[in-house]
Amino acid sequence: MGDNKDDPDQPQSRPTVVENAWNIKPDPFKQGDMKHPLLEESSFATLFPKYREQYLKQCWPLVQKKLNDVGVRADLDLIEGSMTVTTTDKTWDPSMILKARDMIKLLSRSVPFEHAARVLEDDNASDIIKIGAMVHNKDKFVKRRQRLIGPNGCTLKSIELLTGCYVLVQGNTVSAVGPYRGLVDVRKVVEDTMRNIHPIYNIKTLMVKRELMKNPKLANESWDRFLPKYVGQSNKNKKLPQKSKKKKQPYTPFPPAQPESKVDQQLRTGEYFLKKDEVRQRWLQKKKERQSDAEKRRQEKREQPFVAPEEPSASSKSKSSSTDIDIDAFKAKIKMANKKKSKS
């Protein structure tokens, strides 16, 4: 058997190497490219919460008009709380039913119609990231979700500016709409934030990459030396609280003594041999003693504000008022003062 690889007449298929797949733009699918209609009807449905009902009623005519342009029918069922999209005979792009499905999913997750309608464009897509199961502790989950939003939404706004995507954080999900490359970056930022990596590190990385893309000289070089590196903090150096060591008691072959039962205690005190009336009488007497002690403490507490404070005695007052004055020194001071006045 001969080998066809060495035969020049046989066509050989060689894999094409793509240097940068993000720069490749596929040809747009225009109306009339699909020559035959769809054979089967496809439909997708999704439920929406009660609080979205008012908004969907207002914007549903716009949704129907937008989907009618691509030949997709949209139905809103307020009784069941569901939205349905279905292909028709006028559907000229088979992928539009999938994009319409993504559109109604975004509308049910509180994404405004203006941003949800961007999914129908060829260059845009959507991504719904479920973050509820990433962190099991509720307090940690709330803190990391708030860290993703940032103060007054600054962190979320910077992510939107760097990726070109619309990002909405609500409940246990993060909804993103935008270009494919931006969605990859948004998912990385969200997952790293839920893994306790601050989003500022990824934001700095995106900013550096944005500046490096403007330089054509660095197009074929590695950018690792320019990107910031995140080093996780290890808990190895932290000193764990030492457990108190229990002192070992000397070994004895005898088991520990059994605790006394109620009957044993009554036998020891002699209460077991008393009659029921006598036992009740002793219990009532002890109860009265406890009540009288408690009443005395309460009475003392009530009378405490009315107790007069101790006043100083008269002898102490006289001692404090009587002061020894040196009369000769006092006369000398007065003479000196008069002399100064006469000289002046």
UniProtKB/TrEMBL annotation:
Coiled coil: none annotated. Its main location: nucleus. This is KRR1 small subunit processome component. It is found in: Nucleus, Nucleolus. Required for 40S ribosome biogenesis. Involved in nucleolar processing of pre-18S ribosomal RNA and ribosome assembly. Binds to RNA. Required for female germline development, cell viability during eye development and for survival of dividing cells and epithelial cells during early wing disk development. Keywords: Coiled coil, Developmental protein, Nucleus, Ribonucleoprotein, Ribosome biogenesis, RNA-binding, rRNA processing. Residues 308-322 have a biased composition (Low complexity). Monomer. Component of the ribosomal small subunit (SSU) processome. Residues 290-304 have a biased composition (Basic and acidic residues). It comes from the Eukaryota. GO terms for molecular function: RNA binding. InterPro entries: KH_dom (IPR004087), KH_dom_type_1_sf (IPR036612), KRR1-like_KH1 (IPR041174), KRR1-like_KH1_euk (IPR048550), KRR1-like_KH2 (IPR048548), KRR1-like_KH2_euk (IPR048549), rRNA_assembly_KRR1 (IPR024166). SMART domains: KH. Belongs to the KRR1 family. Residues 236-249 have a biased composition (Basic residues).
